[in-house]
């Protein structure tokens, strides 16, 4: 599902903030500069305190090489390494933690 409604994303963010202590994994934003600016515009930085899983245009890299600042982030916390990898009878994304 691709969410492109800014108000809905902000509502989800509030829910995450209230429940983030209940989750083992780091809750954050998975996006790239082009998608972010298409949804929020160039100056929106409300989620800068969240963990950024950056989705580069080329996968299979575990570095911030090629990252361009957006949304208030100057560097990503993690990188989407591979998309839709079959694990446990489902497809999952694999990310690298850069922190």
Summarize the structure.
Helices cover 22% and strands 26% of the residues. With 99 residues, the protein is α/β, with parallel strands linked by helices.
Fold topology:
Layout: H1 6-19, E1 28-31, H2 33-40, E2 51-54, E3 78-87, E4 90-97
Parallel strand pairs: 1-2, 2-3
Antiparallel strand pairs: 3-4
Describe this structure in words.
By secondary structure, the chain is of the alpha/beta class. It is 22% helix and 26% strand. The chain has two helices and four strands. The protein has a four-stranded mixed sheet with strand order 1-2-3-4. Helix 2 links the parallel strand 1 and strand 2. The model has no long low-confidence stretch (mean pLDDT 76).
- Please provide the ordered H/E string of secondary-structure elements: HEHEEE
Beta content: 25-35%
| Rg | 14 Å
Mass-distribution shape: globular
- Overall pLDDT confidence: 76
Major β-sheet profile: 4 strands, mixed
Q: Span between N and C termini?
A: 28 Å
The number of distinct β-strands equals 4
**Helix count?**
2
How do the strands of the widest beta sheet line up side by side?
A: 1-2-3-4
Q: Percent of residues in helical segments? A: 10-25%
Helix/strand/pairing category: alpha/beta
**Poorly predicted residue ranges:** none
Features:
99 residues; four-stranded mixed β-sheet; 4 strands; globular
């Amino acid at each position: 599902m691709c969410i492109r409604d800014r108000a809905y994303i902000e509502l989800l963010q509030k829910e995450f903030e209230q429940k983030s202590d209940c989750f083992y994994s780091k809750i954050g934003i998975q996006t790239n500069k082009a998608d972010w600016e298409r949804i929020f515009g160039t100056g929106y930085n409300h989620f800068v305190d969240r963990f950024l899983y950056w989705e580069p245009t080329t996968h299979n890299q575990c570095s911030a090489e090629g990252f361009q600042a957006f949304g208030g982030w100057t560097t990503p916390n993690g990188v989407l390494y591979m998309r839709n990898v079959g694990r446990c009878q489902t497809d999952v994304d694999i990310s690298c933690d850069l922190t």
